[in-house]
Amino acid sequence: MQSNSLSRQLLPETSDQYKASRLFSPGRVLVVCILIIAALGFWSIRSSSGHRSTRVQGESLESLVGMNSTSSLVAGEYSARLNYGASHFLIKEPTICDSSVKQRSGYFVVNATKNRKYFFWFFESRRLPPAKSPTTLWLSGGPGASSILGLLMENGPCRLLSDGITTEYNPYGWNEVSNMIWLDQPAGTGYSMGKHEHSLTEVRDDLYNFLQAFFHHFPEYNRNFHLAGESFAGHYIPVVADKILQENKRMDQG
Known about the structure:
This protein has helices spanning 3-10, 61-65, 148-153, 200-217, 233-253, and strands at 29-33, 41-46, 55-57, 89-92, 103-111, 116-123, 135-139, 158-160, 167-169, 179-184, 225-229. By secondary structure, the protein is of the alpha+beta class.
């Protein structure tokens, strides 16, 4: 697998024309923070029928994660953020690494004002029907470490060999039992582009926008969602989880 071949398969052609569509909030979500140093906790978000907003099932962030919330959200503060183009996208369907399952890679615009585009690489689960499998988002640490490192050298469906250009099948990849998303974030990490974020609040909002866009564009994977990561991802995951909980509470109230 040559590096230029990898880029051709994974990266859509650069274009200023992105398709826009109205976003819907993610469905049943189970947010799990898996860290190298320590587990922080988990909670679940239950979906509702039809086009109603998602509902939260669980306790407070403090009791579930064992820490105080690191962000203060005002109801409605971010209500307009998902309307300016977070669902703009460029998608490809590569076959490298694990040709036995459906893959998707590409970009979603997470902040049109600052031209931020997050790159992802998605693999369906191997064992279970994808529509019945959980979906897991993996975040590497750093900050600034590409999650493709995790995909190709840690928990992905293939491993990069020592020659640096070929891969081998990984029978222990996490997509054995879960649909998997490996995401380059924050902006400027790996293939992700745009003006760098300068705070956890910015990263939190961009990650949330990515999830909204992904699950709107691929609703078939919108169930039993897990959020996992290592190292510095322990800073991102709690605030993104808090954002999900707060936004769902706001939607429930509205």
